[in-house]
Write a structure and sequence with these properties.
single chain, about 150 residues, 3-stranded antiparallel sheet, 3 strands, about 60% helix, globular
């Protein structure tokens, strides 16, 4: 099943990349790959996007578990021919699980992609954003009549 494969691959790549960063860098260390444009910067993020609600780990664990349940429920309601929507949900699920693992094991999320003009992020974050973008695109491009037919 592509959904499960995408989700598992994403979680593995996310966790391996975070482990590499944790094993090769110290928190706060930055390595300029393209100076002043793109750096690898090891950040331990105890909050959500932009560090909001820092140190509310239990809250984020509960919210993430609820989001995972909602993604799975939505997945089962989507018709099989809607592959892009299912791919979007797989990306969102993989990203949610990747960051959930960090919160459960470490109490924070490991971030490392640093474009200097945006908060530091990770592969799981990218997957969630791309998944949400794909889902929005698919919803917006379908007609109102098609939307009614997508759900069983």
């Amino acid at each position: 099943m592509a959904f499960l494969g995408i989700t598992i691959l994403l979680v593995v790549v996310d966790q391996v990349s975070k482990q590499l960063v944790r094993s090769m860098m110290v928190p706060g260390e930055t390595i300029p790959l393209v100076p002043n444009i793109f750096h690898l910067t090891y950040v331990q993020n105890p909050g959500a996007a932009f560090g909001i609600l820092a140190h509310r780990t239990n809250f984020f664990i509960i919210i993430t578990l609820a989001v995972i349940v909602l993604i799975l429920l939505f997945f089962w309601r989507i018709s099989p021919e809607h592959k892009m929507i299912k791919t979007a949900l797989a990306l969102q699920l993989g990203g949610a699980v990747g960051n959930l693992i960090d919160r459960l094991l470490l109490g924070h999320v490991t971030d490392f992609f640093d474009f200097r003009i945006w908060p530091v992020f990770n592969i799981a974050d990218m997957a969630v954003v791309v998944g949400v973008g794909l889902l929005c695109w698919e919803i917006l491009k379908s007609s109102p009549d098609k939307k009614k037919q997508e759900f069983h």
